Amino acid sequence: MNEARIAISTAASLEEAERIASALVEQHLAACVNLVPQLKSIYRWQGEMEEASEVLLIIKTTAPCLGALESTLRSLHSYSIPEFLVLDVTSGNPAYLNWILESVTPHPTPSKSS
Dihedrals φ, ψ of 89, to 5°? Predict the structure, then answer.
């Protein structure tokens, strides 16, 4: 079974995106994070139409790391509700998929305190 996943998020600035990406790779939660600057987002927030310049983060990771990755991303992010969408990888270059699996370390999903 293929455990590779692509997670996407956006950040308010290149500096924030670089800080998040570096932390995810340093903590072995992501094999690679691509940063796509100069993204223009148009969206509705709190009932109002908004526009923002953002940086897209394309995060290569694995299913077992998703909980810890999301928790880390939320702790480093400036948005109150950061984008965090996960896409299944259905196929790809087997050597590249193996590299992703070898580059990340499974982390236990953070438990919720009662």
Answer: -100, 115
Q: 79: which DSSP letter?
A: S
**From CA 100, how far away is CA 110, in angstroms rounded?**
22
Strands (E), the chain: 4-11, 32-45, 48-62, 85-88
Alpha-carbon span 61 to 3, nearest angstrom: 8
Q: Give the pTM.
A: 0.89
Contact status, residue 7 vs residue 61, Cβ threshold 8 Å: yes
DSSP annotation of 46: T
Model confidence at 1, pLDDT cuts 50, 70, 90, reads low
DSSP-assigned letter for residue 54: E
If you classify domain 4-103 with CATH, what class do you get?
alpha beta
